[in-house]
What we know:
The structure is a single chain. By secondary structure, the protein is mainly alpha-helical. It contains twelve helices and no strands. The protein starts with 7 loop residues before the first helix and ends in a 29-residue tail after the last helix. Iron/sulfur cluster (SF4) binds near residues 207 and 214.
Amino acid sequence: MGMMSPSPASRKAVRVLTQLSEHQGKTMLARIGRGRPFRTLVATILSARVRDQVTETVVPEVMRRWPNAKSLARARPKTVEKVIRKIGLYRIKSRRLVEVAGILVRDHQGRVPDDLDELVKLPGVGRKTAGCVVVYAFGGIALPVDTHVHRISNRLGWVKTKNPKATETALYQVIPKKWWSRVNDLLVNHGKTVCKPQNPQCSHCPVARDCPSRKAGKAGKE
Ligand code: SF4
């Protein structure tokens, strides 16, 4: 019996995650915090392809008008559109919010389920969104992989994968379980600030030492 000792790859991953956690602030969903799953779900749906700063200006107003699934389920999508107009894809998202709220009322007594398999049944809620709700709202265990997590895990050499689904599967082997729920927050933040898709700022990267993809830096230049 006994615990298997971690592989060198997994020790390295933990070192990187630890370092990132010492360098970063929190993402939007982490700032919303635990225990407000409806708000987390609404924010997650709104945030698809939108900058967090924009989403964060809209979420409080949505919550003020429709603080729970019951009230949002009764809202007219046209009214919701007006409130979320700053957000990309606001027409689709307003219909989606009302639809999801309706399903929560009908099938879940107006509550957001804390189970990944139930969450992914909601329209427009993929594994990543569902995982975020599990992790951020309920403090549960999941490893949501979005494009940032996918890209950076590959850059760091943790995985060699072609798509986020494969990355998720591979990461479960590399990352010790107690870190799973932190990976999204840490890598998303890192991806937005330093390890950007087009132009990673390797010369300012706190984990460059452990990264096989680091580029010789052009400090001061974008
Ligand atoms: S060294 Fe560069 S590629 Fe590697 S994690 Fe840091 S920013 Fe990303």
